[in-house]
Specification:
Structural class: alpha+beta
Number of strands: 12
Distance between the termini: 20 Å
Protein name: Acetyltransferase
Strand order of the largest sheet: 1-2-3-4-5-12-6-11-10-9-8-7
Number of helices: 8
Order of helices and strands: EHHEEEHEHEEHHEEEHEHE
Organism: Pullulanibacillus camelliae
InterPro entries: Acyl_CoA_acyltransferase, GNAT_dom
GO molecular function, one term: acyltransferase activity, transferring groups other than amino-acyl groups
CATH architecture of the largest domain: 3-Layer(aba) Sandwich
Low-confidence stretches: none
CATH class of the largest domain: Alpha Beta
Domain N-acetyltransferase: 145-289
Mean pLDDT: 92
Number of domains: 2
């Protein structure tokens, strides 16, 4: 087996698609990112060129690596001959700065442990996540209000909410300039939606990373002053219904297992668990791959 790295996302997609589609929902994150790179939706947000690589033979990829700096390295694929594929992968990413790792537990855990043993990388679990899938929306009660696509006039709300979401859900501070850029792009793409009550936006959600079959719901946030009314549930339900009606076979979302409330809410809408995922953060800057 060898390490293959790519500059062209279309060629990379052609090589790894069949492997990733074997567990399509689990691999929605890398599949969606590759699609975004093909469609040139991400370049203005990247700090450096993306990493697109796999371990295997030319016709038989086994372990796939995707990273869009400054985001974490995604590890996905098959767990066959894992010790060998992980070892080759580590050799392949020498001299690459990796801020963290994310993937299904059965892949990311041994990868992180090997990094620690071979290179002295120190990590900590940043978030334990669960991947959910939705095929059909359940008929839950919807609160007062309606879903609509966010407009530029909503930017003043959405920028504040985006910053708060990053701090609350991801424990990450995000630069104001980047927030403005993300919100502007999300609104232009009609990806960000708000739940509106009496002309006032009270909650938001975003659709992201579409593939041929599925799409992810993310950025679900209600500011503290509007919580407790079911706005987020209604927003996610309505957005999920809209996406399925547009022709997507399924929707996915990631939840923080430390937040039982959101996990319960999404299951009531019709989302069901598929797999658990772990996000690790590198905590020492002195490491060297």
């Amino acid at each position: 087996m060898d390490f293959f790295r790519f500059d062209d996302p279309q060629i990379f997609h052609t090589r790894v698609e069949r492997l990733l589609l074997k567990q399509e929902v689990i691999n929605q994150l890398p599949l969606g990112i590759i699609h975004s790179l093909i469609n040139r939706d991400l370049p203005t947000l990247l700090e450096s060129p993306p990493l697109m690589a796999y371990v295997g033979s030319e016709a038989d990829p086994r372990l796939v690596l995707v990273m869009t700096p400054p985001q974490n390295l995604i590890i996905c694929g098959s767990d066959e001959a894992l010790d060998e594929t992980l070892s080759i992968a580590l050799e392949g990413i020498r001299n690459v700065h990796v801020p963290g790792f994310i993937g299904a537990a059965e892949l990311v855990n041994p990868f992180v442990h090997m990094c620690e043993e071979k290179f002295g990388v120190k990590t900590e679990v940043k978030m334990k996540q669960r991947i959910y899938r939705l095929d059909r929306v359940q008929p839950i009660e919807v609160c007062l209000g309606h879903l609509r696509v966010a407009k530029l006039r909503d930017s003043q709300y959405i920028e504040k909410w985006y910053t708060a979401f990053s701090l609350e859900a991801l424990n990450e501070a995000i630069l104001e300039e980047k927030v403005k850029q993300q919100v502007k792009l999300g609104i232009a793409a009609e990806a960000i939606h708000v739940w509106e009550v009496d002309g006032q936006p009270v909650s938001m959600a975003k659709c992201s990373r579409p593939t041929d079959n599925g799409i992810t719901v993310t950025l679900v946030y209600t500011p503290p002053e509007h919580r407790g009314h079911g706005y987020a549930s209604s927003c996610v339900k309505a957005l999920s219904e809209k996406l399925l009606k547009q022709g997507f076979t399924y929707c996915t979302l990631y939840t923080d297992l430390a937040n039982p409330t959101s996990n319960k809410i999404y299951q009531a809408i019709g989302y069901y668990p598929i797999a658990d995922s772990l996000a690790y953060q590198v905590v020492n800057d002195e490491y060297q791959f």
